[in-house]
Amino acid sequence: RKTIFSGIQPTGVPHLGNYLGALRQWVDVQDNAAPNTTMIYSLVDLHAITVRQDPKQLRQWKKESLSMLLAIGLDPNKSTIFHQSDVPAHSELMWILSCQASTGYLGRMTQWKDKTANEKDSSEKLKLGLFSYPVLQAADVLVHRATHVPVGHDQAQHLEFAREVANGFNHTFGTDALIPPETLISPAKRVMSLTDPLAKMSKSHPNPKSRILLTDSEEVIRSKVKAAVTDSIDGITYDPERRPGVSNLIDILYHTDSRSAYSSQEESAKDLAGRSMRALKERVADTVESTVKRIRASYEDLLHDEFYLDRVAAEGAEKAAKSAAVTMKAVKNAVGLA
Ligand code: ATP
Ligand code: MG
Fold first, then answer.
1. Quick check: is 271 in a domain?
2. Is residue 209 part of a domain?
3. What pTM does this model have?
């Protein structure tokens, strides 16, 4: 039997990269799951606070993110949807795993190195939670005995770490309490920023024009795509190395073109070869708009139904807590805590 687990941080309204790289897969898995499959999706608010958050803003983002998970088509009757901080077992397992995790390994994580590159000399300012974040992420996945974890490319390294932690724990304590999960990387594994095509699209990047939100109006989508950084080379070709901006637009087109007639990005670029950059951008805006349209409308309805959102979160937390309890019992037994 399969258990699918994944999470998203409530650090802003999800964007096209989140959708194509992760969220769309969550819904696909749910809608095509064999009867024996369990799907668990979390709004990982404890991860969100590894950087400073305004409490009021965080509360709002949690609500918005939950509405978005429902708007994209997750069904609480089929998938467990919950706020991470509602299920204390995540933090509890994290502590136990922290006592196994190597600081050397954590220090080599790309995300840690990136986020701390500018603060090299000020370890006073660097927070322990940001450093140990991958241990919490490992706990998230392991506490539900996930077998498969659908994520974008940027999370592959953290999942490698989760497998390492699981195997290490099982070996140390002579148990099979933890299951090393498989990573499922979506075909659109890395959607790039519209303003800096060498960086991935992110919720937390300071420039709102760098990303297309799943709540953006058609007008906003058109203006963001129009302003996307490209290059001055003639014609349309797919070449991520030399033409990252154009290639990102072709990627977006390819992955939003209602699962297109083209078999590859190269082929869809060929079709556009004689066209202008403007024509490419118009096509991208069209396909993005048609992808986002229905999501946006259903999001607006859901966001105002607080009663329903609270109920979904409460029921999700209850189911997630039950799932986690099974693992915690085995883990505590293995360690000698119970
Ligand atoms: P933040 O900037 O706060 O880290 P984020 O945009 O990176 O936000 P996360 O909540 O960290 O979003 O990640 C949620 C999921 O979306 C993860 O599975 C991640 O791999 C995926 N993801 C994030 N950004 C992209 C992207 N640009 N392309 C493809 N997948 C992405
Ligand atoms: Mg991220």
1. yes
2. no
3. 0.96
